[in-house]
Amino acid sequence: MYCTRNSQIMIMAIGLMLIVGAFHTSRAATLGEMESLRGLPGIVLKPLTFIATPAKVKHELPLLELTTEIERTLRQSGILLDNHVTERGNEQPFLEIQGAVTQIAANYYAYTILVELHQTATLLSNSSRPLVVTWSEGSLSTGDIRNFQKRIQLLVRMFIQDFQKMNASRSPAWSLSWTPSS
To answer: What pLDDT shows up at residue 22?
Structure first.
């Protein structure tokens, strides 16, 4: 039921995007979201998750190459990556990239992308430590597969820029030198 509900939400988001029109990134990170990046020792990059219609569209996405490029970019930016996928109970922050793609014409797609950093947090109202999203950026757009890949890379760069801004004193040598491949 969860996967079905998640799929329905993604498809509805794409439908809404088609009605309202395509736009670029959804918004800039808030100060609170950026502050949640301060002092992080490192993160886990979860495997990319995509829903596609028709199903053959997912096979057109170079997910392995995209994952490798994202990992390389995060490492080059000074962000430490843990290779262990986060499991329930593990308190390591993790970056999750999700997307939904639907083909609307030959070589033309509508898509939504969401990049989120998940961390455990201590609630003021009690001592529980739930998993919460502390940083999030998204995009709804249309275009070919390369445009989709560039949009993911743009969102990852936004995360890196915010991370570097909040942790600049930790390593003055950090720079954002990565550019998306064409």
So the answer is: 42
Domain that holds residue 132: 2-84+92-166
In a domain, 172, yes or no: no
Residues of the chain falling short of pLDDT 70: 1-28, 84-90, 170-182
Max CA distance (Å), the chain = 53
Q: Establish if 17 belongs to a structural domain.
A: yes
Give 51: exposed, middle or buried? Use CB within 10 Å, 0-12, 13-18, 19+: buried
The domain total for the chain is 1
**Is there a domain that residue 53 lies in?**
yes
> What is the spatial distance between Cα 2 and Cα 178, in angstroms, rounded to a whole number?
36
